[in-house]
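dude i think i finally got it to work??
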Amino acid sequence: MSGQIALHPPRCPDRDHAPTVPESRRWWVLTVVVAAQFMFVVDAFVVNVALPSIRDTLHATSGEMEAVIAAYQIAYATAVITGGRLGDIFGRRRMFIAGVLSFTIASLWCGLAGSGLELALARLAQGAAAALMIPQVLATIHVLFPDAARSRAFAVFGITLGLGGAVGVILGGWLVTLDPAGLGWRSVFLVNLPVGAMIIGAALVLLPRLAPGQGLRLDLAGSGLLFLALATLIGPVMVGRELGWPLWLFGVIVMGDLLLLGFLRLERWVERRGGAPLVPTALLADRRFRRGLATLFAFQFGNIPFYLSMTLYMQDRLGFSPLRAGTAVVPLALAFTLASRLAGGWVPRFGLRVLRIGALIQLCAIVDIGVAAACWPVPDVAVLAVLLAVFGFGQGLVMAPLPGIVLTTVPAAQSGSASGVLNTVHQAAGAAGVSLVGAAWFTAGPFAALAVLAAAAVVTIALLGLMGHGTERLAGRLAALR
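look at this
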């Protein structure tokens, strides 16, 4: 049994923590929380297309432009576990609304920024607000859907992850080109104001007051130590290429490793003394959870930088305008949505083989894109769109169900902390992937970048094979719940 992934509803004590929410209402709750997730993912990608316009308008330096992207990611990655724990302690509804409100205010600051430095600081605030908001999304889904609808709920969540990236590229290209109300690049941030207001209004009406953990307190020492550890691990990866990877940067990474080991020792000490650690050690002791995190890391390592590679390829190599590059990604978004919906029904029947097939489809698409680029200096747009759609279909089969599978064995009372860990791994993988793929692109060309992406897909397939077998037994357990 240790090699299997059980996707059936968790046993007690999880059911004791699950609130009683009417069937129809919990799907509205899902809509509200994934809307916030969608807004967050779009903002992570929309800036890439707008960067040239931002640089010209603000007369920003290249370092400031790098900071505009990196600050958002670093703030989120270093604080997201703490944000998840705050949801466990004070209630996920309260923290979710506070996070959305803070994110919306930070977006207004981004839209009004008058310099590159100010915009980087505003993006730092945006990322920190997201760290408060996003862990409550997964935690809420985990608690509200402990039954057979779980796979469908996480399929919807998965759609927002992949579709948000595609929409971010599309929306950024369209907004910068169309220049609504003469706002230029500022519109990519200001569009969050009405969206955030609607999410807050809906959350106040619909989100249930999930009972917070009893007697839990925030592990301040653990939070501070983890922040320093992640900042010294993730920060250098994000800025290493631009700095030329000086030797001292590797010393910072080694320091981060030591701080992370110190954090783990501190958490064990806190738990032995009867306290509430930031990350319960039982989570890290769960072999299936660890395997799931490793698989998620490999998957996201190749997926997030894929969009960067395609943006560079279309705009720098093929000369596409931002609008045309954004439009070329539309088939990917549509295929991803279709695959995500199909995965919700296929995974309960066929188990992890669906995810392995999805990763294999992604691998084939990456290889075919490389072949097309080698055979045709300027591939036909229709051919490129089809290959992107194939990639998007494979991506949807993996991304939609994977987070739910990773969280399967997590007790509801620890769902906030587990969601924070999952989001940190997600972000760290993306940062590492962007750094390595970007370095491969700028030093050896697009084929080297595609080779790294293909290798990540191969590792993902292998790790999915290690996550579990026995899909027929899995299918039988899930079928019994219907």
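Confidence is low (pLDDT under 50) at residues 1-18, 469-482.
im so relieved honestly
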